Structures are given as C-alpha cells and as structure tokens.
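Q: Can someone sanity-check these two? First one:
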Amino acid sequence: MNPKSPLFLRLSDRLDVYLRLMRADKPIGTLLLLWPTYWALWLASDGIPDLAVLAAFTIGTFLMRSAGCVINDFADRDFDGAVERTKNRPFAQGRVKKKEALLLTAFLCLLAALCLIPLNHLTWLMSLPALFLALTYPFTKRFFPIPQLYLGLAFSFGIPMAFAAVVGNVPPQAWILFAANVLWTLAYDTVYAMADKEDDLKIGIKTSAITFGRYDIAAVMLCHGGFTLLMAVLGAVIGAAWAYWAAIPIVLLLQYRQYAAIKSRVRQICFETFLANNRIGWVWFTAIFAHTFFAK
C-alpha cells in the first residue's frame, strides 16, 4: 500500500488513535496489573508456572487493561478536556467517536476472552466479576466517594483467577494477597488522584484524594502500611524463605521515599511518585520468586 495514499493515511490515523486510547505507549498500568498477577502465579505454581497459563494471563492482562483505558476515556469524554494531564487524549481532541470506542472495547474484551480457552471453568467463572469491575470502574467516579477502592478490587481480581487457574481453587493466601493488593492500589492511585485534585474539584468528579482531604497523605501511608503488613502475614502463612522477608525493609524504604516526595503535593512529583510504585511491584515479585527457589 502506498504510504501516501488517503487510505493508508486514514488507517494510520485510526491506528494511532486506538493505540492512544489503549495507552499502549504508557505501560505503567499494565505493569501494576501484572505484578500482583505474577505474584499469585508464582506462589500458586511453586515457582514453575505453566507457560501457556503464564502467556494467557500476560496477554489477557494487557488486553483488559487496554479495554479499561478505552472505556475510561469514553466515560470521561466530557471531562478530559478540562484536566491538564488528559486534555490531549483522543476524545478531548475530538479525534474519536463514541461508537468507535465502544466497538474497540468489545473487540479487546473478545480477544481477552480467547485467552481463557486453555484455562479451567472456575477461571472462566471468575472472569465475569473481573470484567464487570473493569468496565464499571470509570463510572463510579460520578457517585462513589472512594473510586480508587473500587479500582483496587478490579486490579486485584487477577490474583484469585491465577490461583484458580493453577490449583483449581482459591486458598486463603490468595485472599490475603488480594486484600494486600487492594490497599496497595488504593495507596498509589490516591497519589495519582492527588496530581489531578485541582482539576477534579472544578469538574465535580469524586476521588479518594478529594474525599480524604487534608488527610490524603496519611491515608496513603496507612494503606501502604496495611499492604506491607498483609504481605508479612502472607509470608507467615506460606512459611516464606529468608529472601521473602528481605523485601520488607526495602519496600518500607521505598514507601518512606514516597511519603517524603508527596508531602509537597506538587502535581508532577505526585505523578512521578505514582510511577515509582512499579519498583515496589518488582521488589515483591523478586522476593516471591526467590522464596519459591529457596523453599524447594
């Protein structure tokens, strides 16, 4: 196809718009979803996950995160233009139609459903509430005072699904990890919301940063503390090896650095602090990987 032809240019433009809707150029969301899913897969499989299961969850996580981003932009299409960080998104620029976004969401969900084919029936059943949470989260910002808590539930459902796929049931340690990840998500997404607090107040949507008010930083650190405490409880339940416990002081240091950074409440610093949570996810994955290695 001629790269200068009108058809090629049209297709290229649509592809660019769709990839931007999917946040394909911003992998942080996928990573923050993948880390807890990988924690669960490695624990459930004793450090040797089946490659087909690993591939299914990796690809499925990317697709569902992408679908969530598209439906989020659809839900926020009347607000994004008024927010500094989101004013250049496709809907805010008038580059995409509502029908296109809904069709793209459905297509991504269909592709994600295909990833379930090699998995068991329990995993298929658990994908239904996971799908519901992912697609309804963007609309909770209209009425729920702490939508980041709802996001935490959506971002954590890969954990029980991973255990279900590997061992055929969801043991207690899966729910401990689930609860820990809900708190971690609430912590880092509140920091994310702090970056947009001024704009969100103007347009009238609800976020945890607004609900917590001047106690937003305290709430973030309490959630971080609860997250780390539950990861310690998980370590006790699974009889974790020394390498697992070595992660706790490292994570506490990273959390303290986040506290020192967000005290300024500067928009860009809050956003960079949100991004830094990828390190915490990586540290815990390394700890769980090491635990499964040394525990053998």
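And here is the second, same format, sequence then tokens:
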Amino acid sequence: MFDLGKFSLLICLPILFGVHSSEASDRPFNLGKTATVEEVAGWDIDVRPDGLGAPVGMGNAIDGEEVYAERCAACHGDFGEAIDRWPALVGGEDTLNTHDPLKTTGSYWPYASTMYDYIYRAMPFGEAQSLTHKETYQIVAFLLYMNDIIDDDFVLSHENIGAIEMPNRDGFYMPDPRPDAQPVNGEPCMSDCSVSTNIIGRARDIDVTPESES
C-alpha cells in the first residue's frame, strides 16, 4: 500500500533542510545552506551590558510615556505599579535584602542595555518584537525616569545606553563565601581540598507548609 504520509515526509525533508541549494554539495552531509547576512541580522539582536549591539536610535521619557501607556500599561499599570499578578516595574528600593523583595527595573535590573534587549525581544506579551527600535528606546527611557535614574528630557540612545548607572549594577557580583570555593595560593583547589566547615546560618522557619491534623 502506498503510504502518503511517508511520501510527504520525503518531499518535505529536502525543503526543510535546504538540500535543494546549489551549494549543498560543497558542505558535509549535503544539508542546509549558508545563512545570508539578512538572515543572520534577523537573529542577531542581542544588546550586551556595555551597550554593544544596540541598534541605532534614540528616545526620551516624555515621548516614552505615551508609548508605554499604549503598549505596556494594560499589564504593568500606568505608573509601573503592576496590575493583578503582572510584575511591577517601578519602586522596590532597599527591598532586595528583605523577606519580601520587590524586583523592578529600578531596584533589581543591573543594566539599562539589557532592559532594551529584553523589551525589544519579548514585549509586549503576546506581541513580541512588534516594537520599533525608537519605541523601545522611548519605553526604556520612561522606565528609567520613573525609577529616578535619568531626567525626563534625557535622550537615551545607542551611544549612551551602556553607560547608564543602574542602582543595582554591582549587586550581581560578590565573592563566593563557600569554604571549598576559596583559592589556595591564588589557584582554586580542585581535589583533596582540606578546609574547615562552619555553620554560619540556618534557614528561617516561615511555617508555610500545612501540617496534617491526624
């Protein structure tokens, strides 16, 4: 009996893997094709902490307020205070070392440049990558302004986004306090490490697990 499913798969596989490319014979396994500059650009959208990779563009908080209200406020609130269970984007100062930390773009996020990366890549929810570069700069500028990091007329751009000093910029780096992670003569101990172990703290009992009454 003729199996139409297998026949369709045989037809589709060469198309999916690009074996129809005239260059296929030049590559191992005759699969795929070399990505074009345009194809690479479609995926290479990351913006690094120092701002490397930020697309050319600019925006300020004054213009960003309108864009934020239209594209972000439905979930995050008009002032970044959050609606329902969506995350807050403003506030949370001095809460990270408490039992109820509020992690926002102002209290927690270490780099303005990676704020841009995340917003452009993944927001708005359900409409990822529908924002233009300009709109993204404007939204980031508005959030920075709402968290008292920049003035409302500050022009945020690809040239300065990597230099913005975020309140928690240094909060993601600290020495490893574990005894077995300490270097010996400048080098980490990799085997037969002899270190003393001291209990320096215990987990707090917050009594959140229901107990059986039986």
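A (reply): Looked at the second one. The first strand starts at residue 58 and ends at 59. Strands lie at 58-59, 156-157, 183-184, 187-188.
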